[in-house]
Structure of Cysteine desulfurase:
Amino acid sequence: MSTSERDQIGNAGDSPRANEMNGPSMGALPDISAIAQLANEFFRALPGQASSPLAAASAPEMPVVAPSLGTGMPQFGAPLPSLPAMPAVDKLPSEADASRLAGTSFVFPKRANSSPTTELPPMGEAGQYAPRNIATDTLVSPFSMPLPAFDTAFLSFEPLFPASSDSLVAESVPSAPPSANSFYFLESAGTQAKPVEAPPANRLPALRSEPALDLKLPRRQFEIGSVRRDFPILRERVNGKPLIWLDNAATTQKPQSVIDRLSYFYEHENSNIHRAAHELAARATDAYEDARNKVAHFLNAPSSKEIVFVRGATEAINLVAQGWGRRHIEQGDEIVITWIEHHANIVPWQMLAAEKGARLRVAPVDDDGQILLDEFEKLLGPRTKLVSLTQVSNALGTITPAHQMVQMAHRYGARVLVDGAQAVSHMPVDVQSLDCDFYVFSGHKVFAPTGIGVLYGKPDALAEMQPWQGGGNMIVDVTFEKTIYQPPPSRFEAGTGNIADAVGLGAAIDYLDQLGMANVARYEHELLVYATQGLLTVPGLRLIGTAKEKAGVLSFVLDGFRTEEVGAALNREGIAVRSGHHCAQPTLRRFGVETTVRPSLALYNNAEDIDALVAGLIRLKSLGR
């Protein structure tokens, strides 16, 4: 495995608690003796090496290596016996051996500036094998302790064709261990091996973790410890407790890179845009339009000319309702939405329907919160002019079958708007694949500042729209008789826009591009599964919205407690959740409730956040009123 390939391996935890959740038990390991012998052969061949770092007289204390076997996870099965030291030999491994081990990676640790076999600290009880996460330098066990820093040598076998001894590669990583925690090793503290103590029976089910590969974005790994350090507000304390931010569906926190970019803009670039010849205007204009290009790339839009900056998803929907709807919706026409929309995707259409004499029709959902596609299609017909639907429900987390719904609507000649406010932070978005006519989202939902949002529109759809607001920046020529407007997107950006926060949105997209949205989606999905399992252990808790396809939003009610009581109790422990109707009253009433408690996840949350939430709820329930 090359360095670049290793850099693409994702990571799903940064702590002992998170890494206990890694992977199911696996079977027996391959022949460790052969592996150690190959290691000895390699190190013997290196200049200045008399023998492998693994060869030593005190054989029972030597490290035992667990290979990843292509899954990125070690095998945790029966304990390995203590191994004798392997003698050094004078040649590299044969082509057959190199070929047999192709594609398998091993980690051989050594204590910094010391002998790897005589000064490694004992681990656990005598003879117990304990897995260690080299990314966080901690043991992975129910009761974990920190370890000293290690240098680490990687021994890798590249799957070359034809295989040769040249495929044996060693790399030394001084001082700091690598951040990818898909590499582990096992250490023995004695000669009588015994299994690692099983976790308590009441522990939550393990969170499956696999490498998350994103071949397009090899520049940075998704390593949760590093990600959390990028968000300074997570070091805040609330009521004397570390902040646990689980109100991400309302707004997300900002990485340091976004904060720094805003500061840099105001220190070095602040100016109005487009209409001046001086240097700062040029800098501000470049930064603003560069952000537009980044948004187009983020959504996979064909052109930045299809990206309109607005205040947020709400303003974007209203812009379409006023700029497109007032021109094309007539009396007797129909607008179709779904039962799980945010108020922002209901009220503008009600207002338009009332003004035009049109009809608003609502697609139902089942008891899990999933769109009933057959019923949705029954609502479509020759009078359907617009379909507006959420991609992810803000109250339930349901991921709608947006692709299919867009296709269905287009068969009847309707335009389609997709509300992506709750989708953009959880999953990759491709507007060309969706084939929607309009797509909207808010920057503050995706780690950018408040007050900035996006309307994407197909060129022909934008061309059918009239400006909603008039003023400077959106005109070609003005006389007292008439005004000639700029083409899209400028015609929809009247006045001085939110320049700095658009630049901040570009910085947030840079941050996500470095991580890779595929990596984010995979990590959050596993965390959502873990959180769902944890909440179901709380007595008297009822989940609202149990669709098979969900993003990181959970809603629940707790028997015997009002939702505001639950929110207040969690706040006393530093845990921020949302309690209320979440601007989705029709959605919640479909499930017979007026309000819920809504913890919602983002890429910087981890298993410890979930454990604290579950423990807080169990404690509240046990105390009663």
Q: What stands out?
A: The first helix runs from residue 3 to 6.
